[in-house]
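#struct-pred

JT: dropping the chains for the assembly here, can someone run the whole complex?
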Amino acid sequence: MSDSHNHLVDNSLSGKIKQNTGVSLSRCYQCGKCSAGCPVSSDMDFPPSLLIRKLQTGLPEHEEEVLRSKSIWYCLTCEMCISRCPMEVDIPPMMDYLRSESLRLKKANPAAKNIIRFHKAFLDSIEQTGRLYEMGLIVDYKARALNLTQDVALAPSMFAKGKLKIMPELIKNRKNIKQIFQKTINKKQK
Amino acid sequence: MEILNKLLDKTALSTLIERFGKAGKEVYAPVKENGITDFAKVDTIDKIDFECIATKQSAKSLVFPRVEKILSFEKSYDDISVKNVDINAFPEVVALGSRPCDAAGFIPLDAIFSTDHVDEIFNARLKKLTVISISCKKADEYCFCTSVNGNPGNTAGSDILLTEISDSTYFAEIVTEKGKAILDANTDLFKDTSAIDKTPHLADVKQEFTAEAINEKLNNLFESDIWDKQALRCVGCGACAYVCPACGCFDIQDENKGNKGIRYRCWDSCGFGLFTLHTSGHNPREKQSQRWRQRIFHKFSYQMVQQKQFGCVGCGRCSRACPADMNIAEHLKEISIN
Amino acid sequence: MARIGVFICHCGENISATVDCSKVAQVAATFPGVVHSVDYKYMCSDPGQTLVGNAIKEHNLTGVVVSACSPRMHEPTFRRACAEAGLNPYQCEMANLREHCSWVHERNEKTDDKAIDLVRMLVEKVKRNNSLQPIKVPVTKTALVIGGGVAGIQAALDIANAGHKVIMVEREPSIGGHMSQLSETFPTLDCSQCILTPRMVEVAQNPNIKLYTYAEIESVEGFVGNFTVKIRKKAKSIDESKCNGCGLCTTKCPNKKNPNEFELGMAKRPAIYVPFPQAVPNIPVIDKTQCTYYKTGKCKICEKVCQANAIQFDQQDEIIEVPVGAIAICTGFDIKKADFFPEYGYGKHKDIIDGLQFERLASASGPTAGEIRRPSDGQIPKKIVFVACAGSRDPAKGIEYCSKICCMYTAKHAILYKHKVHDGTAYIFYMDIRAAGKNYDEFTRRAIEEDDAKYIRGRVSKIYERDGKLIVVGADTLMGAQTVEIEADMVVLATAGVANQGAEKLAQILHVSYDQHKFFSEAHPKLKPVETNTAGIYLAGACQSPKDIPESVAAASGVAGKISCLFSNSELTREPLIAVVDRTAPPQYSSCTGCFMCQSVCPYNAIEREEINDRNGNLVKQLAFINPGLCQGCGTCVAVCKSKSIDIEGYTNLQMYSEVDALLNF
Amino acid sequence: MEEIKKIAKQLLSENKIQMVIGFEKGTANKVRPAFFKNADDVEKLIYNDTCIHNLALYLKKDICHHIANVGIIANPNVVRSIIQLASENQVKEEKITIIGISYEGKCVGILDFKAAEEFAKTQPKGLKPEDRAFIEKIQAMPLEERFNYWVETFSTCVKCYACRASCPMCYCGKCNVETNNPQWIPVASHKYGNMEWHIMRAMHLAGRCINCGECTRACPVDIPLNMLSYMLTDFVMDEFHTEAGLSTTYAPALSSYTNVDKENFIK
Amino acid sequence: MSEFEPKIVAFVCNWCTYAGADLTGTSRIKYSSNVRIIRFPCTGRIDYMLLTKAFASGADGIIVSGCHPNDCHYTSGNFHARRRWMVFRRLCDFMGIDTRRIIFSWVSAAEGAKWAQIVNSANEEFKKLGPYENYHKLSTQEIFE
Amino acid sequence: MKLGFYPGCSLEGASREYNESVMAIAEEMGIELVSIPDWNCCGATAAHNLDKELSLSLPARNLALAEEAGLTVLVVPCAACYSRFCATQHELMHDENLHKKINGIIEKEYKGNLRILNVIQFIDEFIIDKLDDKMKFEFNKKVACYYGCLLVRPNKVLDFDRTEDPQTMDVVMKKLGADSIDWAYKTECCGAGFSVSFTETVGRLSGQIVEDAEHRGAEAMIVACPMCHSNLDMRRPEINKYNKKKSDMPVIYITQAIGLALGIDRNKLGLQRHFVPVKLKDFKPYTKKTEVENPQKMEVE
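RK: done, full complex below.
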């Protein structure tokens, strides 16, 4: 037996964040610098520091709020928060984790539907072709989002400027890519 | 016992070794390894170096090992339990291919360990040792056995002495009961013969002086300046003593691992300054010349008085080993004509 | 035969909560040589010490192992207790069951085993301890005070008034330190210079104090009571004995456009200057890097106008060697400059200033004569933002510790600002208000309640300039971490107090330890707050950690008390834990063969060459001899001695060997 | 050789020295150290390329104690030894007259210490190719094999201390192996005792050994123990750029330091 | 079966590492209890023969620790020690003595956490290396049997 | 000289002009950029938003392929790809178990011997020193260098320039003869991956950036990230809507700026593909500067 502390397994959300990402939320002393610097904090229902505060309480109702929040989806991963945080609380990986948890538990905020659709469409494109096929992505995304009129004006001019391709570019070893998807994201979702 | 004369084929010697092995006897013989010939355990004849004039070290470690456990002890809170070494557990050993001088060396050594106090451990080892020597057909400039009552075909100390009389045959002299026991157990290997004159088959070692003359001279030489002169280049190491077949000095030390420990004896040399150093810092043999004098006096005077035995067999090992070329024969000759 | 007593301390529950003390005592009782072994709740208490004393007498003990806390804590306590019971104090050893065992391990059998091993080790060691007598050394009753800030001034005056000589060394041309730069002081708002200047003058006039300004410590050798200090007195280019302080040279100097250090660059000064009007001594210095004569070989106007003929262009640095008995380090602190902060523009904006600069702006003797004006354009700022914790409590990019004084001086700044700019608004971004001190919280409340300081709880994320305004972007965490943007005219960063620039070098000269922030380390955080680990060297003021004026002064008086105690004896008693060369009977005299490798490794020059002569005076042998007054007991000589002729008391070869042996063989 | 004899005779006859340490004929075709106290004796002096014993050793022995000035026939190894001994305060210049001989056997006349330093510097002393090859062979072994190699090699050591006795740098009045409280090195010549003894000896010679090889030559059981100190000499040269036996004011590697010594192994 | 627990001896100087280990205690930072600390006045005092002695007596690993360069209470003891260890390590390596089992470190009086980390990582390393049988055997075989 | 090259999806699609300009200046400087054979998408924001291991595996496959192809230096112009590559490298090199696991997933062995360079590092290392010899025009305009997020953050992983107020791009632009302004939005986020899903947010974030640059007199913005470029260029209608005024300040890739200074044909640099027309003209011909005067030296004499 080693001498290390035998901590009880922390089942709170912040405990899971610690275990899965190594980010310790107890380090946050609520200075608010992340919220002040966050470009999208005004769009969020809870700015980053407040979101951490909710997780620090460890109360189930607060955790629920977080998983159902818009904040986690509005995060742009611009890394401004971590680059300014005096305590080096690495928020972006925490956000990544919260998003995957929110998805897994089917608690994603309705406002985030478009984002999720976009991400999924994006990954589908990669899974199929190995690379991003922008035309396909846009068509796929719009189909999913049922937002057929958005950016109607943009596509033709992009096309005109040679920025969109009609045919997807396929990589040779698509099997390899499919395998990677099988072993990672697909495995977890099934 | 009267000496029995036999013949032994070299091929039979090989069989003999095998039989020793089967009988649980450990056979030690000169073996050449990395250019140095020394006694080592053998199980076949082909490892044995028969050509070597003298092994670098003598055969004395077979009965007087470099380091030897005497007893073991164990401490507890207020008590110590002591266990003597089990002398019955010593193996039967055969020294094969030793030279007559090696064999002769066991005699003064025995004298040291058996005068006054009879050393059980030494004697137990000696008792289990059988010496089968081979006469010398070659000698070098360091050999001087003939000056100290020995000769290249000397049987003293050997249980069996072999003398090579042809490429294939040894003349075997069965000297002791121990030797006879071997003969009796292996009659098929030995052939009968009458006495043979060994002289043509022996090396020529010129006698330069007599040990008796040295003994005589020493009576008046204690205060002589000859010791200073002779010891000038001596560097004070213990090489001479450690290769000497007749040197018996030892140190007794304890070594422990926690509660448990052993007492052992290990070789020591009168040539070391530490040998006689007193706790006070005073040293009765402070100078190297005094220690050299002690060495000569011990071997040629004191041992004669106490044990009726010289402490030198003329093997010349000390001179060969000396880093400063202290040639003992040369020094002794100088003393004899002083 | 050794008769050892073992005493296992529970330290309340500090040890016994983790280590089975009674088991350890029982096992220790079975060690060879141990005749008495007990455990007890508080060994260091009076009854505990009596327990040890009685056992020594009753069992006729020859050695004692107290198994309790770190020997660095209580070794002297128990050695004293042993001595009182008639046992030589050096026959007492301590096994460290608390810091090295109970506090760092879990409660289990392995920890008990370790405790037993630690005790066994020390039992084996103490069996081989020698009974030693303390060494007496004389004391030089002169103190060296390094640094002439408020702490140094206080320490020097207190020591001098106790009747001892003091040598004060100050790096700058004048004493006074940072306190002389301050405007008014919290929480009383009295004028800093008004209270400090008289004390500065007192230093100059006290006959017991010898003051060297513009001087630095070159080297320190020796030991408590007997230091030898070399001071480099930098050339001021002025003959101090002739200068009458008329100041004509400074007014006539044509080279006036040099940044004024005392005003933190917010004003200019001539190349020959007195740092500030109230400087002590009131003697100018020529700044050689700026003086036209030194740069071009021409000018010498100051020489021409000086009627006292005090200008000496060819003056050289002077090295002064003085013997002292004790040293007080009062070197103070520096502050992080505003150009340290990335998200606040790396000092690009002139109107983002640090707290010390604000002090000068608010000071009646400052560059604006006490009016708060922007450095960029001299306008009076109507909106001012103070940023607390600027760089402090920021392990990521700044300083991880709390700089302690900033909350208070920021509150003071807000009050001073309001007093000077009645129609202005002061915002303060803060994280916590740390105002623990007599009348301190009241003071910050006053800033908020009476002087209308707008405290916003949150940290500033970014400051940028736009159209002449400074946009301060922060958050208000009391409002759900909402973003707050203030268009300010001026920003004051409450930057952290950090260790003085030269602290590390000085620590190395003095051989005292310092922490990761380069602050000097005290010998014990609670019980020896003004001592260093080196006997005879003391600490006061902000060189130890950020401190405010009352704390610095209190520590300085503490140091003065310590030094006065030291000087109250004519002789010092030193621990006899020093190296010795073995001696034996002639003709050996010693196993030392005089190769003197020990001499080349001794940092204290404590090893001399002893000559042994015969009756006719002929040299027989040269041996190493260790001067017991100089040896500090490091033992490096012991390890380099090939023949093991040197040994060190307290850590002898036999003792250390036995410790290794005892520890591992069982 | 005639020139050496001439110098020695002259020094002795002028009583500038009272003894010359040199060589004479030994057993068979060997040479042996010899001590000449008058000019006539010097006729017996010989010098040839078998004269490899490090005579500097005798400067620390009884025989030189009461002699005012000792002349010594000094090849570069001896010169280096004397310089090293001088740096360790073991010999005094006024008591020694060095008659220098180069590696090629050429007599370079009488050297004072300063000249001896200069002379030593002109006599290159690197590792011989075979020594280097040996060291490299050892280094190439896996750790365990290296360990076993030395354990086995040292197991034949009888602890006669001929290595110590023939080393000019082993001049301690009381060798560490002879201290017994504590008993740093087991007295016995068992594997452990032998290993410890050779570790200690190598460490004591680190940065002091002048690579004369006497220890191995003296060893009655031919242990290549000089390789330990040769290897360390090389290491000290590489790391600290110092070499024993070139300066009488030399600070041996292990009793000096610089602020920039490598510490990449320290955590 | 219980896991192998290495025997670790730590030779530390009084002023930095011993005090650092005290700080580990006052900070209540946990570390492996396999270590036994022996206090020396200075790293300059530490004799290399004690290290081999420790191995011979059953240590599986050794930690030698003192003040950082320039921080020595006695000015230069650690500098001398550093050289000594350089040479000693070289010799050990040449003789096949496992230098991975001797860990040198600088731990100041302020580095309580570092001390715990040094001990724990040493403990892990020594666990990986297993018992130092080669050296233990050396001192126990032959005549002790 | 041959260097490894990872174009990434954007450079093959919506940001072709970036690719074209990188290739154009590399060619001019005699550098051959070798694409990783059979490269795949780095996964961008989508992957790490949804699955960590996927987000590491996709870049790791590319890195492994590059290593297999014997490349040691990899130029990654797209800031997003660069960020993903660096993050992957950092994570794998700091976590042995994770490294093994990812190698297992991609069924390739990435050893970690690649040096990953963004376009500015590439310019700094291989191009800037040669500019003096090859420049034909001075880029004598007032410009705002815009770094965005992913080029400089997080510093711990990228170790490139200083996070707040970076300077490397400014240095390059100054070298080209531009007056690069000090401004407040150098490293603020443009909205990045929300370009499609939250267009309004992008309008706001990018709007503030464009407004500040224009307010401070910039004639052009210089970028080194295809996402920044599409947001600032293609989303100009949304930006104008947010700012309630029309802005026609062009957004130029730093490689295009260099290309212009080198006198490369505008179409070869892909300038015609911009939504906001690049109307910059009147570049001053460049004359190589002779010996730099050493004022200090003069003073001594």
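JT: nice. Chain A has two domains: 3-108, 111-189. The first helix of chain A runs from residue 13 to 21.
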